[in-house]
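This section describes the prediction task in plain terms. A model, or a person checking by hand, is given the sequence of a single protein chain and must write out its three-dimensional structure as a string of tokens. No templates, partner chains or ligands are provided. The sample shown here is typical of the held-out split.
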Amino acid sequence: MNFDFGVEEQQFIVDVRQFIAEQACHDDADDVMNPNRESDSILSDTPARKRFNKAMAQRGYMGMSWPEAYGGKAMPGIYEYLLNEELSRVGAPLIGKGVGCVGQTLIRHGSEKLKAEFLPQILKAEVEFALGYTEPSAGSDLASLKLKAERSGNGWLLNGQKMFTTSAHFADWYWLAARTDPQAKKHKGISLFLLPMNHPGITITPIETLGEHVTNQVFIDDVWVSDDYLVGECNNGWRYICEALDYERFTFYTFSPLEEKFNKLMQLIKNTDRDGVKLAEDPCIRRDMARLATELETAKMLQRRVIYVASKGEVPSIEAAECKLYSTELHQRLSQAAMNFLGEQGLLHKDDADAPMGGKWEWSYRATPLDTIGAGTTEIQKNIIARKKLELPLEY
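The expected answer:
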């Protein structure tokens, strides 16, 4: 199995790195490129980061895999993965929901009106979306969602609640899943809508997590939406949600943040003294670092398998589950190792002037558990592996 990238792909990586180097000269670069924000580093949640996205759009990086008829370049999805790999390496915002699940779904299933309204804005990085899937009683079991959409004239009246909606506090539009047929089986009767986030019937309540990541609960009270903003066919939303996962497979599982975190850990032990001796000279620490280096290579190979399977036109559900399970837990093990090496110094918050490496490791220790929950919990990944790869029965 050859994991090397081709000549054109390697040249694309060079071009992206040159673009990033140019952007690093801007006055707002520290805001744009901030890997210490962990999960939040992928978001376009500040004016500086939105400016950066528009610069990416001008460079032609938005919608590269889209058909030419819709303003794209019809390039293989691997290029979007390579772009996000380099962006995530420096903690810059990724091309994400707009280009991926929203844009691709509209191209395949959206009306001409929705395509004309939203696709040009996505290509110009002029619009941000939030995904309204999870509810208080419908998390990993998304098909159990209960937010109601009832027929009202030439549209729908929506009522209910969503939970843990990342981006709701700065997004322009809500990509919302609602139940349009309560009598149908739970995977049926679900539809997708587009709602403006500034609708008066939408109330957003921020929730700050342990790692200072801001997510939101969203209340939908008597929000009327026209049939024009129903995405695709009524009651076919579950299919579109599942397809969206395929669109993201090239871009979601980036390896570079793990590699950069390991490199920072190496820098830490080489430059930190304890009782006049470098941490790197401690045999126990050297042993731990050797193990982590081996685990890093394992994570890299798991991630490359996701890309390899996807590049053949297959859905890498097992490979993606293995990669997500292993890599997110490795992020935690790296942070835990740093805390162990530093001892009581590692507990210093980033706001403390004496915190090692600006408090990176204490922050990372608090932030990394989120990654084992978002985009499918660790338990869900284990279930996928057990059921699809090992063919083991699920417990009920």
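For orientation: The CA atoms of residues 101 and 241 lie 8 Å apart.
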